[in-house]
Design goal:
mainly alpha, about 375 residues, about 0% strand
Length: about 375
Amino acid sequence: MLIYVTLFLLISLFTLMEIVVDKSARRTSSFFNINFFSITLFLAFFLGNRKLTGSDSPAYEYIYETGVGFDRLENGYKWVSLVFQSHNYSFWALQLFLGILTVLIASVAFILWDTNSKFFQLLVFYSPFWYFMSFNGMRQGVATSFVYLGTVILWKTCQTNSWIKKIIAFLCFIVAYNFHHMAITIIFFVFVIWILNTMRIIVSGKVIKVLAVFLVPTLLLVPPIYSIQYALDFLSKFGLNYTSLLSVNGSSYEMAGKGLLFILLLLGTLLFSKNIYKYVGLSNYFQISIFMLMLLLLIFGSGMNAMRVFDYFLPVLSLFVGKLMKESESNIIIIGILYVFMATAFAFTMIQNTHQIIPYLGWS
């Protein structure tokens, strides 16, 4: 556990320095760049060299060695596995490659989006909804990184209207879907918001906040645990094999203290987001994203029912960190709330040993 806590505190320290140091100095400072490269390089090998750390790692090794259940996996993961098998590489080599790929793609996206907030984005990445999830879900970790990169490139087209960037973003989404079908949930969401933003049809932030204030207590009291099954049945048509895990009923719905705390933190972020930096509609996109995260937790509860979808939504929030740092005091409050959100999630991960990341078995 000590190595996990040390990494969290180290990235937190650089995030704080990133906030207080002048922007021009951050951009040109070799100190920030070298440390960012060093930390991401360590995270890549630390993830890739985890061996049997993570609850699903033994199952992935068994499938790779025996072929049992191989046909149920997505085509992208199967293709990479077959390439490694054809060269007689071990499962550990495949694990190392996918771990490095996950961190590398995410890091490229951080720099492309905003090099001045790369450490805060890295902090969001290190949260249990992405990096630690990748200890358990090899396919979903890769898919989440490609979704993030595709989202960054797609939003860059709002400035340049480049068809080449749109094609590259589309290819990133295809790769993500072919590694983990659940990625279609956030891909669909990103495209809808992008289209609405392009057409300048964005829902008023005030409307979103009013809906949140009324819906949060309503859904806490009466969660729509039955009607959501229609949406899950629809998603199953896109090859989502995990809809049965997301199914909810009166006996399985649970809103634990963790879920309630996360909802309060998200609601606070939403209500303080009045003066978010106005950049091609990102203020509304940020608020809608926060709203969607709260709805996911409210609808599915706070356990595994919500987290498989939740994993894809949370990292996209780090897109807005760079736009928040240089604005008004209310945005500093938002950054503080987001940090508390990350720290709380990290603490729960350590205490509950989520994804069975403790002990780390990569050293053996």
